[in-house]
Amino acid sequence: MRVVATAGHVDHGKSTLVHTLTGTDPDRFPEEKSRGLTIDLGFAFCTLPSGIEVGFVDVPGHTKFIKNMLAGVGAVDVAVLVVAANEGWKPQSEEHLRILDLLDVRHGIVVVTKSDLVDPETLEIAQLEVAEHIEGTTFAHLEVVTCAARSGEGLDTVRAALDRALAAAPGACDNGRPRLWIDRVFAAKGAGTVVTGTLTGGTLHVDDEIQAGDHPVRIRAIESHGRASDIGEPGARVALNLVGVDRSDLTRGDAIVGPEQWHFVTTVDVALTLMPGTELRTRGRLTAAVGSGEHRVWFRQLGGSFARIRFADPLPLAPGDRIVLRDSGSRQTVGGAEVLDLAPARKAPDAVARLEQPLADRVLAGGWVRRGGLDASTGLAPDTATAMLIGAGAEPLGDWLVRSETIAAARRQVLESVLSHHQAHPESAGLPLADLGRSAGLDPDRLEPLLATDSSLVVEQGLVRHRDHAGRASTSAAGIALIAELDASPFAPAPPADPSLRRALVREGVLTEIDGITFTTAAIDAARMLVIDALRERGSITIADARDVLGSTRKFVVPIMGHLDATGVTRRRGDHRIPGPRSGLVDRSSES
User: Fold this and answer.
1) Fewest beta carbons within 10 Å, which of 7, 549, 555, 579?
2) How many domains does the chain have?
């Protein structure tokens, strides 16, 4: 299934040609039929001799309805430019051609119609005139054919030429990222809200959860080229019956997209192409045609061929999208733009330097790029985007793609931080991960995959050390001094002055922390033996007894006895402690 748009001056026979080819009058409104003037978009379908199904989007040719013409051609890549032999090249012939050129439409045909109304010499002049005007545009290489649509003369030639054009055009791209710019919204009796448009970028299925404008919706039913279907494929005209949104909530120009697959942006930097003889002010307001919609935008030239466009409302855009710019005052098309950057630099001079780089370099400008969301930031399928960035010098690192030089710089910074910590604190087992992240300027999402792929560093119990670092806090001068200080009053120790040293000694097992009080592990072992001796002699003891046995105060004895309870040395019976299973005083056989 392929979609083809018409283009050309008013009354040059676009609708008649479509009607003759398809058997369907694309003019939908009584006013159009009575006046013989296309006002809005029309749609019709046919099958070409090759078997290709074609959906025509017939556009109005009158300059008053250029907005509707733009809505019809914004999502197509094949067009039929129609020029009447009896009138020749006209203003809207030129403007429609320029619009197709700005949209980079490179496939289609040119049809010189109404050949039966002129003599052979006039027909030849019309053909030469067409050839002259399409020179230098995307239509320059396209086939030019003639016909008389009302009589049917030359229609087989038109069909064959269109078949050849479609065979030469690349197939619709499926990046797994569907987008449909809505060109019609209506309420179908008994069905609810229905939208239509040309689907690009990916497939849609019945019951898919998608986004319509800024509304989450579900697809109840799909029609493709006039037939009910379970699937809408890229490159086809589709109608979607939506659940979860009212007809009044959507309008032409809104987009249907897959959830979380697109960046909705208000500001983009673009490559600018001006119409011949056109000059623009450095700053101003313009009208931008995007997809099927028209938007008032703020426009600023950045230098060179670059510009910045700011929309009032966010749109789902991607690099490579095309925009047609018009001056609302003069009602003239002034130029076109190709979206380059979805995250523009704040300063204009920085933006120009950035925009002169290839897409891969722009995406990698920040150094770290998440694999998830690559399709949204590049407009490419994830695998294609990944290959592009790797080709530009990025390396896979966990969930990231990172420039090789960025990885190297980050590794140097991390190593310097770890080695500096070892030098300043040789007794420490390593630098805490959080401290390392702060010193290296890396959040955990970046730091963890970096450390996982660095064989020179070891991560243990939340600490990072160099693989050759074997320093132990307990053998350092500071560690030995602290242990001696605590052992001087083993059952009533003063709080250690160096928290980091205390933590290191606890990790090594030399110190034991109980309820916020730090004892040497040797002191706890000694307390255990003294309490066991007292239990052996007395059978049970109280806290007061333990206080006398240890020569300490209640502040320190209560946590010590709680530790002995928890480890099974003692058991609590009211205010007394009796021997526990790990005291060595309980006869296990008698217990059983």
Assistant:
1) 555
2) 5
Collapse the DSSP code of 457 into the 3-class scheme (helix H, G, I; strand E, B; otherwise coil) and give the result: strand
**Residue 347: which CATH number?**
2.40.30.10
Q: Are residues 270 and 387 in the same domain?
A: no
Determine, yes or no, domain membership for 303.
Answer: yes
DSSP-assigned letter for residue 119: -
Last residue within a domain, chosen from 308, 324, 356: 356
Please state the pTM of the whole predicted model: 0.75
Distance CA 386, CA 396 (A): 9
Residue 592 lies in a domain: no
DSSP for residue 213: T
Q: In terms of pLDDT, which residue wins out, 367 or 257?
A: 257
DSSP H helix total and E strand total for the chain: 19, 33
Distances in Å between the Cα of 351 and the Cα atoms of 57, 300, 355 are: 38, 12, 6
Run of H or E residues at 442: none
Same domain for 36 and 154, yes or no, is: yes
Q: 297: which 2 tokens?
A: 């935008």
User: Is 280 a residue whose pLDDT tops 50?
Assistant: yes
- 566: domain range? 490-579
Same domain, yes or no: 372 and 352: no
Q: What is the mean pLDDT of residues 403-407?
A: 92
Shared domain for 215 and 114, answered yes or no, is: no
Give Cα 160 distance to the centre of its chain: 41
Q: What is the pLDDT of residue 591?
A: 46
Same domain, 271 and 250: no
CB 553, CB 505: distance < 8 Å: no
φ, ψ (nearest 5 deg) of residue 539: 90, -40
Of 215, 257, 12, residue with least CA distance to 112: 12
- pLDDT for position 471: 63
pLDDT tier for residue 283 given thresholds of 50, 70 and 90: very high
Tens of pLDDT, residue by residue over 135-171, are 999 999 999 999 999 999 999 999 999 999 999 999 8
